[in-house]
Lipoprotein (Sulfitobacter geojensis), 48 residues
Amino acid sequence: MSKSIKFLAAIGFIATVAACTSGQTEEEYVVVEPEPISVEPTYTGKYK
């Protein structure tokens, strides 16, 4: 192959890769708040 065809193929490949990765630079962060911890019931006597 001639040098010009190789050069155009390389430029096309680089342009394709750049176009595909341009929208993926922003990362999304999801923060999940934990549920409140419930307190276990305490024993207060038989009939209280």
The first helix runs from residue 3 to 21. The mean pLDDT is 80. Residues 8 and 31 are 45 Å apart (CA to CA).
